[in-house]
Amino acid sequence: MDFLTVEQVSKHYAQHTALDRVSLTIPQGSVYGLLGPNGAGKTTLIRIINRITAPDSGRVLFGDREIRPEDIYRIGYLPEERGLYKKMKVGEQALFFARLKGLSRRDALKRLKVWFEKFGIEAWWDKKVEELSKGMAQKVQFIVTVLHEPELLIFDEPFSGFDPINANLLKEEILALRDKGATIIFSTHNMSSVEELCDHITLINKSKNILSGKVDEIRHRYGENLFEVTYRGSASDLLGRLDGRVELLESNERVTGLHTLKLHAKDEGQIREVVGLINQTVELRSFTEMIPSMNDLFIRAVKGNL
Q1: Who is most buried in 28, 60, 154, 267, counting CB within 10 A?
Q2: pLDDT digit string (tens) for 218-249?
Q3: pLDDT score of 305 more than 80
Q4: What is the Cα gyration radius of the chain?
Q5: CA atoms within 13 A on the CB side of 301
């Protein structure tokens, strides 16, 4: 079942087009990745879904009807730019935001106690926000985002400022919220998180939707003729020989002195030629076909090579 639909949404600012007829469909109960480079239009789309701003054309639908002002109570939004008041006490502020979301004081206190204990921040209740680390403040904002149990949750770079342990804690909570029935929009540059969390993605580049679909289907669809090469020798010589013949995605040097290279051949007919060139130029150690990561696909799509 489709939970949220964006139909041909456009937004212009002076001489800049932020969104150009973007459409996407988000299934109910999914984690939906909204991807793209800086300035692509992701935040503008999120602001339109949240009714912070309005589109110049197009519409956003909840189910089969257009989104309404009162639907903001069905949404929880964690923006990339955090919005806590530094001079307020943590508990006082969390309670303030909970009341804004329509919770009674009694229900808010009860729920906040559970979340503060879960995140191990009970001792910070009477501390001022300015005393918190970035990651600690992020936990507080995450809590007030999800506290009213909204149907739609929107997280914009939610792992910013977190160490790996706390980032993993947040991932587990996001998946638990999905399992309880929430639909989640997840905007990030972290492609490994996309592979771990997202069921579907849309990639926006230069204000347009250039790629949409299920994560696994996309990885297999664009995985033909993608290879990882391990070799010993001059990286500059090899890259010079291969440049223009195949798409060069990534080149790294290992501690052992071996180099790795990811490349994409346009068709199978190129593969034998490429292996021959590598053998002539460097000492080839392995040549392995691989399923592309979301990071590989992100780079190829933004470069216009999908």
Answers
A1: 154
A2: 888 887 788 999 999 999 999 999 988 888 88
A3: no
A4: 23
A5: 27
Asked if residue 143 lies in contact with residue 112, where contact means CB atoms within 8 angstroms, the answer is yes
Contacts of residue 237, defined as CB under 8 A and 6 or more positions apart, other chains included, come to: 281, 282
CA distance 119 to 166: 9
CB atoms within 10 A of CB 66: 12
Given a contact cutoff of 8 angstroms between Cβ atoms, the answer to whether 55 and 19 are in contact is: yes
Structural domain boundaries enclosing 260: 224-290
The model's pLDDT over 146-203, given as tens digits with 9 standing for 90+, comes to 999 999 999 998 887 788 888 898 999 999 999 999 999 999 887 888 888 999 999 9
d(CA 93, CA 156): 21
CATH of the domain at 7: 3.40.50.300
Residue 157's pLDDT is what?
A: 86
Residue 302 lies in a domain: no
Q: Which structure tokens are listed for 73?
A: 């109570």
| Total domains, the chain | 2
Domain contains 295: no
